[in-house]
Design brief:
- The protein has 145 residues and is an all-beta fold.
- It has strands at 4-10, 12-15, 21-24, 30-33, 38-52, 59-66, 69-77, 84-87, 93-108, 112-120, 123-125, 129-134.
- The strands form 3 sheets. Strands 4, 6, 7, 10, 11 and 12 form a 6-stranded mixed beta sheet that branches. It has a 4-stranded antiparallel beta sheet with strand order 1-5-9-8, with no helix packed on it. A two-stranded antiparallel sheet has the order 2-3.
- A hairpin with a 2-residue loop joins strand 10 (112-120) and strand 11 (123-125).
- The radius of gyration is 17 Å and the shape is globular.
Length: 145
């Protein structure tokens, strides 16, 4: 299995006393906004970076990019103590590191694509992004009876 990352975009991230992580106002593939420019008081991004146990990561760079313009970047020195052992669905030993970032007063001036770029030891790791569009969210599906 190769390295990969998963990003969750939300309005807030909270940790309960029992350790559970809660995403408040989580966005899936798109964020619908009523108009541009659109101001978010808080934009949260939670990233889980996975790597095979046999390929530990020592350094990573995380970038938040909107329409190919970098809006945030941080270099991360990864201590092996920060890596959590996990098992992939294929039964392969993996390591995971979780990173959470909160941007205050984030402004979207136009529609576009918000993505997370992760360079792990100099190699780009695939990660999902978020399409930011003008419009209204579709209605929620009704529960099946």
């Amino acid at each position: 299995m190769k390295r990969y990352a998963v990003a969750v975009f939300s309005d807030d991230i909270r940790r309960e006393d029992n350790g559970k992580l809660m995403y408040i106002g989580m966005y899936t593939d798109a964020m619908m906004v009523p108009r541009f420019p659109f101001h978010m008081i808080k934009l949260c991004v939670s990233v889980q970076l996975y790597t095979p146990a046999a390929e530990p990561i020592s350094k990573a760079k995380l970038e938040i990019v909107f329409n190919d313009q970098q809006s945030f970047a941080i270099d991360i020195d990864i201590d092996t103590a920060d890596l959590q052992p996990v098992i992939s669905s294929a039964g392969e030993p993996m390591h995971c590191i979780r990173m959470e970032f909160i941007a205050q007063n984030y402004l979207f001036n136009e529609p576009g694509y918000l993505k997370v770029n992760i360079l792990a030891d100099g190699n780009l790791v695939p990660c999902v992004g978020l399409d930011v569009k003008e419009g209204t969210a579709p209605p929620l599906p009704t529960a099946a009876e």
